[in-house]
Amino acid sequence: MKLSSLGYLALGASFLVLGSYASVAQSVNYHLIKTVPLPQAPGNIEYFDYLMVDADARRVYISHGTEVDVVNADDFSLVGRIGGLQRCHGIVVIKELGKGYITDGDGQKVVIFDLNTLRVTGEVKTQPDTDSIIYDPASKYLFTINGNSKTATAIDPVKEVVVKNIDLGGGAEQPAVDGQGMLYSNNQEKNDIVAIDTRALTIKARWPVAPSGTPVAMGMDAKNKRLFSAGRGPLTLIMMDADSGKVVQSFPISVGADAVAFEPDTGLVFVSTREGRVHVYHEDSPNKLTPIQVLMTEYGAKTMALDPKTHNIWVTTSDFGQPATPTERQPNPLPQAKQGNFRALVYGR
């Protein structure tokens, strides 16, 4: 079949895109560029969870126990701290409302703050173990995933009220949204991914994650409808079709996955783990991931955020001591983080 001039242009453009992606993959060599010490948070234990980059405002929001540390993404200075929390987890900002939202798991609530002043302006009561949080632009709702409560809470961020609590049928973890009205959340208790209609607030499907297990971390290529889900047992990253639930590919990963991120501009997928590794893949096509780097970070650096402007990776960790005494509930306790050594590690290409 002969190609029209338009066809040649389209074909040439596709080769340019593929060539650009290939050059990105070949040039990836992440390495440590900055260690950012952060002050000790109030309280008797060291705890840290999600990070969030506001690329436009050049801020990095860092969960740190009883407070959120806010760091300048360019000069790494401490901008401010949002305190008064019991145990914070996730952070989301909605620029058009001028507000940020923090999940406080032990407080069973979402705390609301002003983006300009960082002052707390309100709260919404949720459910026990309110953990991750995400904003869905299609429904314009916030969604929290409440682990031990086995629910998701839909919140109207304008009225600052709960719209609905959705029974997930098991303890769930990090979600992703496609921007078109679907939310996907890892259900580590059921070893599946639950697909939720964000407008109807109902579950549409459940898909098993085998060969992965205990899925925790998730990212998404919304354009190509691909989910990236990382599990803790078996230790596996899967790429899944977000329309059918079909597992397209799988890869072994290190222990303690807790964050996955996808970078649309480069086609890179990142998986961070407690063992102190970031697994980096390149999405060659919607049906093919290629491993390109295993970045060695530090033990405990399990959560991660990407800065789409600089392509930097941010993780947090601390020094660690001996594990706690085993109990019936926790027969294999992990090493305990020490206070006074909390830090962000920034990796660049």
TL;DR?
The protein has 349 residues and is mostly beta strands. It has one helix spanning 5-27, and strands at 31-37, 51-54, 59-64, 67-72, 78-82, 88-94, 99-104, 109-114, 120-125, 130-136, 141-146, 151-156, 161-167, 172-177, 182-187, 192-197, 202-208, 215-221, 226-231, 236-241, 247-252, 257-263, 268-273, 277-285, 288-296, 304-306, 313-317, 320-323, 335-337, 343-348.
Labels describing this entry:
349 residues, mainly beta, 1 helix
Describe this structure in words.
It is a single chain. This protein is mainly beta and 349 residues long. The protein is built from 1 helix and 30 strands. It has one helix spanning 5-27, and strands spanning 31-37, 51-54, 59-64, 67-72, 78-82, 88-94, 99-104, 109-114, 120-125, 130-136, 141-146, 151-156, 161-167, 172-177, 182-187, 192-197, 202-208, 215-221, 226-231, 236-241, 247-252, 257-263, 268-273, 277-285, 288-296, 304-306, 313-317, 320-323, 335-337, 343-348. A 4-stranded antiparallel beta sheet has the order 1-30-27-26, with no helix packed on it. The protein has a 4-stranded antiparallel beta sheet with strand order 2-3-4-5, with no helix packed on it. The protein is globular. The termini are far apart. Residues 1-11 and 13-18 have low confidence and may be disordered.
